[in-house]
Structures are given as structure tokens and as C-alpha cells.
Amino acid sequence: MKNEAIDNIRKNRLARKAQFDSGLHQEIKSLREQIVRESYSPGFDPERHQSLMLKLAQLKKEHKNLGLLQSA
Q1: For the chain, what is the domain count?
Q2: What pTM was computed for the model?
């Protein structure tokens, strides 16, 4: 039981490391910053904003799936 818990912790840590190492984490962070910058700019384009939000959702889903694959 104790060894099983230790293995689960290791798997979760490896999964988190894989998520960060994948570069997706940095890409998500920069995309969020871009969305915020553009939403406060005078030339706000709702269609571009929507496409960036969809891209962000896709990246977040990939990031989550990568973690799930690594922890399995």
C-alpha cells in the first residue's frame, strides 16, 4: 500500500515534469498574455479574440492529456 502511494506520487511528478518540458506550458502562458494585451487594445477584433481563445482551449486540453498519458 505504501509502495503504491509512492509510485503514484512519482508518476504524478513525472507527468508534471513532462507537461512543463513539452513547451506547452510556456506557449499557454504567452498566449494568455497576448489575449489580455489584445483585449485591452483600441483595435480589438472579436473574431481574432475568439480564435485565440479556441487555440488556448486546445492547448490546455493537449497539456492535460499529456499529463494523463504520463501518469498512466
Answers
A1: 1
A2: 0.69
